[in-house]
Design a protein that fits this description.
The protein is an alpha/beta fold. The protein folds into two domains: 3-177, Alpha-Beta Complex (Spore Coat Polysaccharide Biosynthesis Protein SpsA, Chain A), CATH 3.90.550.10; 183-262, no CATH class. The chain is 41% helix and 17% strand. It contains eight helices and nine strands. Strands 1, 2, 3, 4, 5, 6, 7, 8 and 9 form a nine-stranded mixed β-sheet that branches. Helix 2 runs parallel beside helix 3 (52-59), helix 6 runs parallel beside helix 8 and helix 7 runs antiparallel to helix 8. It is globular and about 60 Å long. The chain starts with a helix and ends in a 12-residue tail after the last helix. The model has no long low-confidence stretch (mean pLDDT 92). This is Beta 1,4 glucosyltransferase.
């Protein structure tokens, strides 16, 4: 989309919100891109010290401070502060594409969109090479009417469950997901996420955790690599699938550790010698 395209169409009545904590890497670009599809961008910051706040404000966002309430809780703050009923949930590493912005604008041209929630494809962008269009992508409920459905107020989960009687719209064009700029950052991310989910997600039965710890990694990896098509991403596709699978496996290990410690049981199968 050219600059003239942006100025000759109306920005739809949408509020975008973004959670941040030390996200200077991309926050300015993310905010500027979001403003091509939303009339306001609200950054919910939980204590950044790296310049994120200044960069976000400089790019046109409204920044509000909120001590960390959990993944879902922070998004709830974004919903509450949003001026418009329609909101766009984006992360600090997700960039709205011109095609996505045009599609959403067209959705509002005839008034209220027909559905309360819209699925949006997320296309991963590796640190090297082109975006992974057509494979390795996920789908999220990014655009929705907050008067009809809301993010759960949960420590770990930040995606809502769709009621059985609610129809979901589908958007064709994607948001680009710059999940990491290298393996070190990605491993840090999956380590943090695995800890949060192991702590706050409903416990799995121990026998099921045994099976997951023994066999789960290869299932998680295989799903990402073969089913989601990351084999098409070459060597880096293999690495990304491996690290993604490791993150899910690590969640299972951490949950097992926590349950055993809470029960006062040793993590070892044999007692240590005197």
């Amino acid at each position: 989309m050219s600059e003239s395209d942006t100025t000759h169409r109306m920005i739809p009545p949408v509020s975008a919100y973004i959670r941040t904590l030390n996200e200077k890497r991309m926050i300015a670009e993310v905010v500027r891109a979001a403003l091509t599809v939303a009339r306001e961008v609200i950054v919910v910051d939980s204590g950044s010290t790296d310049g994120t706040i200044e960069l976000a404000r400089g790019a046109g966002a409204t920044v509000v401070h909120q001590d960390w309430l959990g993944n879902g809780g922070q998004k709830r703050v974004g919903e509450d502060r949003a001026l418009y009923d329609w909101v766009l949930d984006i992360d600090a590493d997700e960039v709205v594409t011109p095609e996505f912005a045009d599609e959403v604008a067209a959705l509002f041209e005839k008034g209220e969109p027909p559905h309360a929630v819209y699925n949006t494809p997320l296309v991963n962008v590796p640190p090297v090479g082109a975006p992974w269009y057509g494979y390795g992508q996920s789908v999220r409920h990014k655009l929705y009417n907050k008067t009809k459905i809301r993010i759960p107020d949960h420590k770990a989960w930040d995606q809502f469950k769709i009621p059985s009687d609610m129809k979901i719209g589908k958007l064709k064009h994607a948001i680009l997901h710059y999940a990491f700029d290298g393996a070190e950052l990605f491993i840090t991310k999956v380590n943090k996420n695995s800890s949060t989910r192991a702590e706050h997600v409903k416990d799995k039965p121990l026998f099921w955790l045994y099976i997951r710890i023994l066999l789960g990694f290869w299932i998680y990896f295989g799903k990402r690599y073969f089913v989601n098509g990351l084999w098409r991403g070459g060597l880096y596709g293999f690495a990304f699938a491996f690290m993604s699978g490791f993150g899910k496996w690590l969640r299972d290990v951490k949950m097992y550790e926590r349950i055993m410690k809470e029960r006062g049981q040793s993590l070892y199968t044999d007692e240590e010698p005197d």
